[in-house]
């Protein structure tokens, strides 16, 4: 936790917060601070700054906080991600959040097992928690949008052209003849399929929506590795 992320209901008075639960335990056991010490803090969807610890025990902590700085800017990146395996989903969402992705769409694909959509890790509560962990890691406060789309074809035909309009629309696909561009200076909509990529018919569907298939070379990467590698290359 590089940033203690605060919520509006943490404030017990103007400039004073009281925390318990997971954040308290992390601060006590990992940061090992004492009253008078300072921590980096930020308000969810607000500013960042410093918090000075005024009370700390096994039940709660209190800090006085000042929030005068802006969070880091988001990447102008919309990520379309074929729903990963449940055990991978948490770290992909947290990692994409840490990277500064502005919007995340979890979409279906032929290689996505139907059971993945029934995972409790797709609950609103869990997806919010993973994004919060990503914000804490990156010292950010602004949540990326996150949307679920269980039917790829209607999404690609009806919604995606408008969503990607005015952006550089790319689909990462193993074996694509065109290399992924570097250091682009415009918003990007990036689709990443399951490990091994989308089916050719799915790539064609995305191409009809205005996407260009691009590759990263001959290696097949894990989803979480591909997200990080492509974001770093594009921006």
Summing up helix and strand content along with how strands pair, one would put the structural category as alpha/beta
CATH homology superfamily name of the largest domain: SPOUT methyltransferase, trefoil knot domain
Shape: elongated
Instruction: Give the topology string: H per helix, E per strand.
Output: EEEHEEEEHEHEHEEHEH
Number of domains: 2
Mean pLDDT: 96
Proportion of residues in extended strands: 25-35%
CATH architecture of the largest domain: 3-Layer(aba) Sandwich
Number of DSSP-assigned strands: 12
> What's the total helix number?
6
Low-confidence stretches: none
The separation of the N and C termini measures: 25 Å
Q: How many whole angstroms does the radius of gyration measure?
A: 20 Å
Biggest sheet details: 6 strands, mixed
Chain oligomer state: single chain
Question: Order of strands across the biggest sheet?
Answer: 1-4-5-6-3-2
Helical fraction: 25-40%
According to CATH, the fold-level topology of the largest domain is: Alpha/beta knot
Tell me the name of the CATH class of the largest domain. Alpha Beta
Tell me what the structure shows.
The protein has 6 helices and 12 strands. The two termini are 25 Å apart. The longest helix has 15 residues, at 124-138. The protein folds into 2 domains: 4-69, Ribosomal Protein L25, Chain P, CATH 2.40.240.20; 75-234, Alpha/beta knot. With 235 residues, it is an alpha/beta fold. The strands form 2 sheets. Strands 1-4-5-6-3-2 form a 6-stranded mixed β-sheet. Strands 9-8-7-11-10-12 form a 6-stranded parallel β-sheet, with helices on both faces. It has helices spanning 21-31, 86-99, 124-138, 152-164, 200-208, 223-234; strands spanning 4-6, 11-13, 16-19, 38-43, 48-56, 61-69, 75-82, 101-107, 145-149, 168-172, 188-192, 212-214.
């Amino acid at each position: 936790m590089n940033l203690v992320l605060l919520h509006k209901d943490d404030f017990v008075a103007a400039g004073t917060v009281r925390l318990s639960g997971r954040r308290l335990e992390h601060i006590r056991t990992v940061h090992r601070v004492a009253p008078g010490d300072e921590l980096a803090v930020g308000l969810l969807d607000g500013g960042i700054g410093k918090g000075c610890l005024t009370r700390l025990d096994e039940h709660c902590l209190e800090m006085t906080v000042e929030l005068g700085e802006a969070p880091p800017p988001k990447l102008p990146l919309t990520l379309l991600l074929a729903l990963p395996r449940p055990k991978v989903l948490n770290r992909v969402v947290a990692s994409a959040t840490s990277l500064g992705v502005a919007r995340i769409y979890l979409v279906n694909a032929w290689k996505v097992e139907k059971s993945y959509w029934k995972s409790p890790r797709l609950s609103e509560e869990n997806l919010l928690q993973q994004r919060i962990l990503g914000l804490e890691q990156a010292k950010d406060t602004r949540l990326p949008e996150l949307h679920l789309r269980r039917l790829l074809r209607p999404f690609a035909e009806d919604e995606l052209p408008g969503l990607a309009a005015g952006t550089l629309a790319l689909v990462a696909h193993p074996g694509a003849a065109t290399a992924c561009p570097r250091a682009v200076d415009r918003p990007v909509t990036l689709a990443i399929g399951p490990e091994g990529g989308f089916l050719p018919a799915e790539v064609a569907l995305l191409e009809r929506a205005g996407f260009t298939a691009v590759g990263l070379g001959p290696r097949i990467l894990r989803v979480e590795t591909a997200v990080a590698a492509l974001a770093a290359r594009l921006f």
